[in-house]
Amino acid sequence: METHNISIDIPNDILLALNETANDLKKRIKLTLAIELYKKQKLTIGKAAQLSEMSRLEFETELSNQKISISNLRKEDVFRDLEKLK
């Protein structure tokens, strides 16, 4: 898989204030970005899991822990599909 490197500069005192290593912060940023892009329906759950460097199950568990739906289906979509099946 081809990747692109995107870097951002974080002042050292921010890492100290967060009490995190640079690697821990990188993981948290990637997870937060993946969740936000998933919530905005910019990424599928599978692609969001890939961005967060988690398995799909791990990502779904994280969404569940944060009370975020793992399905983008709306009630109207389900009822419309039911009507089509009749």
Automatic annotation (TrEMBL):
Position of the signal peptide: none
Record InterPro entries: UPF0175, UPF0175_domain
Pfam annotation, one family: UPF0175
Entry's family note: Belongs to the UPF0175 family.
Protein name: UPF0175 family protein
Protein species of origin: Subsaximicrobium wynnwilliamsii
